[in-house]
């Protein structure tokens, strides 16, 4: 099993930008033992340290895999669960961190497969930390995955690899098939080319020399982001290593996330909750792909109430809008509670 070391070094944004609340996350940076690649980790511990949590949530982000984008979202989820019995982890992707070393090529950069293995290894660590993790009504600790975008594909692969440990997964705006055929995939494909990595990496390196406060204002104005979101984006665009890692991973997503894994859905579809954008609002998910997924789930006889289409006009990057982030967090907390209740009866 892959092993890691951890430090308590704060990552961008600083801990002062964490969402307010009674139980802010603990921030650490983990380094893979052999490659030394960094990954950011946030943890919302249960408020009763005397007993093991009955629910452990593992959040897997999209791409870029910067977990600080999701701090407010996950804080809201934690506040809407029984905090005495619930612990949340948010594990970023390898090298998607401002601790990533400066590089301008994809040589040695972790790709999609490495990110999957990274998450499976962490699930193994959770099992060691919480030995009562399991599936079914007799399991004292339930492990639930929550994933966004490509994190949904990673989550499905984790379920296949560790089916005896993962009770359920909530997939938000899931990209699990035909990514290169989506409007965004077609439009952004040239950016993911190896030829584009060096100039993009050089550009981000140059941006790192600009005053952070001024750059953050420019980023916020151009992106429409404010507060913690713009700080995270500013950290990204001044970290060449993170940008190269994100683009390298995106190229592999276009190449590898193609045909729907029908057998996986037939076997584990009863463990999955789905949340899609309305109509063709999601530039990373084809409406025909949603139809294909639903057809497989229907044919397998899985419940429709675990599938929702957004009625609030949310975009794929829902976390950039506070009202959308809070609304979806409350929904996710309700899904977690409902699934645990069902599994225990």
TrEMBL record:
Keyword tRNA-binding in record: no
Disordered: annotated span: 1-26
A Pfam entry, by short name: LIDHydrolase
Keywords: Hydrolase, Lipid droplet
Start-end of Low complexity biased regions: 1-17
Leader sequence segment: none
Localization per record: Lipid droplet
Protein name per UniProt: BQ5605_C041g11968 protein
